[in-house]
Structure formats: structure tokens, C-alpha cells
Amino acid sequence: MRCPYCNEGMICGSVQSQREIFFTTKPDQNWLIPSINKKDEIMLSSHNWSKPTCMAYHCPACRKVIIDYSVKSE
User: What percent helix, strand, coil does the chain show, rounded to 5?
Assistant: First the structure.
């Protein structure tokens, strides 16, 4: 994958956590247990009961990480 910011090659990998990985527009709310039914939160990780993981791409040049949550980690 090419970085959309600098067009350099990106490194494919994963982001891992001890808890679910989710995006929210309200970072001070529901930080422990996300309420995925709300429109403000998007679950990004899979394997949430064993090792929450989501596929990601890292650009060493820009120091940016891009998560494609349309593909669940295996």
C-alpha cells in the first residue's frame, strides 16, 4: 500500500491491545466498554475475547498508521 500523505511504501502489520480497539468522537465517555450501537463509535478490532487486533499500515516516513476496518484480522 502507498501512503496517501507522502506516496512512500507502507508496512503491513497490526495494532494490538488488551481491550477492544474502537474509534469514538467522544473520547472521555465509554472508554472501558464501548457502546457500539451508538453512531459515535466504530469497533475496529476483532478477536476481542482473546487478543484484540486490527490490521494496519505504517508509514515510517510520515509516522502515520492507517487502519482498514473493512477487513477483520484473522
Answer: 0, 35, 65
